[in-house]
Amino acid sequence: MNEARLAEIEARCEAATARPWINGETSSGYRSIYAAIVSPETPRPLVTQLRGQNRKPDAAFIAHARSDVPELVREVRRLREFYEAWREVQNGIIDFDLHNEAVDRLEAAEQAILHPDPGERA
Protein backbone atom coordinates (compact mmCIF):
# COMPACT_ATOMS: atom_id res chain seq x y z
CA MET A 1 0.00 0.00 0.00
CA ASN A 2 1.54 3.28 -1.07
CA GLU A 3 1.08 6.74 0.48
CA ALA A 4 -1.49 7.74 -2.16
CA ARG A 5 -3.71 4.77 -1.23
CA LEU A 6 -3.29 5.54 2.45
CA ALA A 7 -4.29 9.17 1.79
CA GLU A 8 -7.43 7.99 -0.09
CA ILE A 9 -8.47 5.86 2.88
CA GLU A 10 -7.79 8.71 5.28
CA ALA A 11 -9.77 11.18 3.13
CA ARG A 12 -12.83 8.88 3.03
CA CYS A 13 -12.69 8.54 6.77
CA GLU A 14 -12.32 12.28 7.33
CA ALA A 15 -15.27 12.95 5.00
CA ALA A 16 -17.53 10.68 7.08
CA THR A 17 -19.64 12.19 9.84
CA ALA A 18 -17.61 12.70 12.99
CA ARG A 19 -18.18 10.66 16.12
CA PRO A 20 -19.86 9.64 18.32
CA TRP A 21 -21.07 6.48 16.61
CA ILE A 22 -23.05 3.97 18.67
CA ASN A 23 -24.60 0.57 18.12
CA GLY A 24 -27.14 -1.58 19.91
CA GLU A 25 -30.31 -3.62 19.53
CA THR A 26 -33.75 -2.24 18.84
CA SER A 27 -36.72 -3.13 21.01
CA SER A 28 -38.78 -4.43 18.07
CA GLY A 29 -40.11 -7.94 17.89
CA TYR A 30 -37.43 -9.00 15.42
CA ARG A 31 -33.71 -8.85 15.79
CA SER A 32 -32.39 -5.57 14.37
CA ILE A 33 -29.00 -4.13 15.14
CA TYR A 34 -28.21 -0.54 14.29
CA ALA A 35 -25.26 1.76 14.01
CA ALA A 36 -26.22 5.39 14.49
CA ILE A 37 -24.56 8.76 14.56
CA VAL A 38 -25.75 11.90 16.27
CA SER A 39 -24.41 15.17 14.95
CA PRO A 40 -25.20 18.88 15.36
CA GLU A 41 -26.39 18.99 11.72
CA THR A 42 -28.79 16.09 12.25
CA PRO A 43 -31.60 16.61 14.76
CA ARG A 44 -32.18 12.86 15.01
CA PRO A 45 -29.81 9.92 14.65
CA LEU A 46 -29.00 8.57 11.23
CA VAL A 47 -29.63 4.85 11.43
CA THR A 48 -28.43 1.84 9.51
CA GLN A 49 -30.43 -1.23 10.37
CA LEU A 50 -28.83 -4.62 10.03
CA ARG A 51 -31.46 -7.31 10.13
CA GLY A 52 -30.90 -10.99 10.54
CA GLN A 53 -29.05 -13.38 12.76
CA ASN A 54 -25.62 -12.61 14.17
CA ARG A 55 -25.40 -8.98 12.97
CA LYS A 56 -23.88 -7.61 16.19
CA PRO A 57 -20.33 -7.94 14.82
CA ASP A 58 -21.35 -5.99 11.68
CA ALA A 59 -22.89 -3.17 13.72
CA ALA A 60 -19.83 -3.01 16.00
CA PHE A 61 -17.54 -2.85 12.95
CA ILE A 62 -19.54 0.00 11.37
CA ALA A 63 -19.76 1.94 14.63
CA HIS A 64 -16.04 1.64 15.39
CA ALA A 65 -14.67 2.20 11.86
CA ARG A 66 -14.82 6.01 12.15
CA SER A 67 -12.40 5.98 15.09
CA ASP A 68 -10.42 2.81 14.26
CA VAL A 69 -9.42 3.72 10.70
CA PRO A 70 -7.64 7.00 11.55
CA GLU A 71 -5.78 5.21 14.33
CA LEU A 72 -4.67 2.50 11.90
CA VAL A 73 -3.56 5.08 9.32
CA ARG A 74 -1.44 6.84 11.97
CA GLU A 75 0.07 3.52 13.01
CA VAL A 76 0.96 2.58 9.41
CA ARG A 77 2.70 5.93 8.98
CA ARG A 78 4.52 5.59 12.30
CA LEU A 79 5.75 2.10 11.40
CA ARG A 80 6.84 3.28 7.95
CA GLU A 81 8.90 6.03 9.52
CA PHE A 82 10.48 3.49 11.87
CA TYR A 83 11.20 1.15 8.95
CA GLU A 84 12.74 3.89 6.81
CA ALA A 85 15.03 4.98 9.66
CA TRP A 86 15.98 1.34 10.34
CA ARG A 87 16.71 0.81 6.65
CA GLU A 88 18.99 3.84 6.56
CA VAL A 89 20.94 2.44 9.50
CA GLN A 90 21.05 -1.05 7.97
CA ASN A 91 22.29 0.30 4.65
CA GLY A 92 25.41 1.43 6.47
CA ILE A 93 25.28 5.14 5.88
CA ILE A 94 28.89 6.29 5.51
CA ASP A 95 28.43 9.97 6.39
CA PHE A 96 28.68 10.14 10.19
CA ASP A 97 26.22 13.06 10.50
CA LEU A 98 23.64 11.30 8.33
CA HIS A 99 24.15 8.13 10.34
CA ASN A 100 23.53 9.97 13.62
CA GLU A 101 20.42 11.63 12.15
CA ALA A 102 19.10 8.23 11.03
CA VAL A 103 19.78 6.72 14.46
CA ASP A 104 17.99 9.68 16.10
CA ARG A 105 14.97 9.16 13.79
CA LEU A 106 15.01 5.45 14.55
CA GLU A 107 15.07 6.07 18.30
CA ALA A 108 12.29 8.68 18.04
CA ALA A 109 10.14 6.31 15.99
CA GLU A 110 10.80 3.50 18.45
CA GLN A 111 9.69 5.73 21.35
CA ALA A 112 6.54 6.70 19.44
CA ILE A 113 5.71 3.03 18.95
CA LEU A 114 6.48 2.01 22.54
CA HIS A 115 4.88 5.08 24.12
CA PRO A 116 2.24 6.49 21.75
CA ASP A 117 0.78 9.92 22.44
CA PRO A 118 -2.65 9.32 24.09
CA GLY A 119 -3.94 12.46 22.37
CA GLU A 120 -3.57 10.77 18.97
CA ARG A 121 -6.51 8.46 19.72
CA ALA A 122 -8.94 11.36 19.80
Which secondary-structure class do the elements indicate? alpha+beta
Largest sheet: 3 strands, antiparallel
Identify low-pLDDT runs.
none
The portion of residues forming beta strands comes to 15-25%
The overall pLDDT average reads: 77
Roughly how much helix do the residues carry, as a percent range?
A: 40-55%
Measured between the Cα atoms of the first and last residue, the distance is: 25 Å
Shape: elongated
Count of DSSP-assigned helices = 3
Number of self-contained structural domains: 1
Taking strands numbered 1, 2, ... along the chain, how are they ordered across the largest sheet?
A: 1-2-3
Order of helices and strands: HEEEHH
Work out the radius of gyration: 21 Å
Number of strands: 3
Written description of the protein model:
The chain is of the alpha+beta class and 122 residues long. It has one domain. 55% of the residues lie in helices and 19% in strands. The protein contains 3 helices and 3 strands. A 3-stranded antiparallel β-sheet has the order 1-2-3. Strand 1 and strand 2 form a beta hairpin. Helix 2 packs antiparallel against helix 3. The longest helix is centred in the middle third of the chain and has 35 residues. The two termini are 25 Å apart.
